[in-house]
Amino acid sequence: MQKIKLNNDVEMPLLGLGVFQISDLDECEQTVLTAIQSGYRLIDTASFYGNESAVGNAIRKSEVVREELFITTKLWVQDSGYEKTKKAFDKSLKELQLEYLDLYLIHQAMGDYYGSWRAMEDLYKEGKIRAIGISNFFPDRVVDLIAHNEIIPAVNQIEVNPFYQRADEHGLLKKNNILTQSWASFAEGKNDFFNNEVISGIGRKYNKSIAQVTLRWLIQRGIAVIPKSVREDRMVENYSIWDFELSKEDMDAIATLDTGKSVFFDHRDPETAEWLTKLTF
């Protein structure tokens, strides 16, 4: 498993398992346990997912040394603000049955995320979090956060896939030494992703699947990935991307698929923003 150094020199695996939409706690626990047994060391969850306790149970049952694991969770909108963030952090830590977090992210650029960031800075200085970052922050919000706070985010977790490649945003993050981490790397199957002729054609050259080619494409761009799967064979498939490298021709071919638009929704649309601020868990 390849790792990358974050901007505070903490090492993070480039590939991990995401558990979004695995709402059945027994299924989530078994999925995470299987992933860890298959070699995964980064697990990405969030308070909003409602499955932190299942992730914690799997970590405990895996009996893997804690220092070998990299655990990420996220702070939801309703918990924004300095004091609320500290309480939410304590709750997440309890659910996960951990003494510290490897990475804590602000899930959305909404609410009092300034207060949240300052609470996270304090938790980081206290040694309770190894790295702090953000999720779904657009460039203007990233630059603003950096300009008015002490600690630069280590990670920005955003939607990145062949249909929404975000090259300019990735460039801005890289310039500021912030790691881009992709969610929805496979576009959740939208736009007939798993039958895409361009990516499948590239896959035939290397005897690799569309999923494997996509993950490799992201990692070669310097983007970390957290693909979700509840099937062991798919987990192993997603993990097996270290034995080949895409050519510049292949990378350029995938670049032509970019639409410049999210395959889900625009976070900056007023109706979307209103919807997100009202979501609870």
TrEMBL record:
GO terms for MF: oxidoreductase activity, acting on the CH-OH group of donors, NAD or NADP as acceptor
Binding site for substrate: H107
NADP-dependent oxidoreductase domain span: 16-257
Keyword field: NADP, Oxidoreductase
Sites annotated Lowers pKa of active site Tyr: K74
Catalytic residues in the record: Y49
Keyword NADP recorded: yes
Keyword flag Oxidoreductase: yes
PROSITE patterns: ALDOKETO_REDUCTASE_1, ALDOKETO_REDUCTASE_2
Pfam families found in the cross-reference section: Aldo_ket_red
Residues annotated as transmembrane: none
Family: Belongs to the aldo/keto reductase family.
Protein name as catalogued: Diketogulonate reductase-like aldo/keto reductase
Organism of provenance: Pedobacter metabolipauper
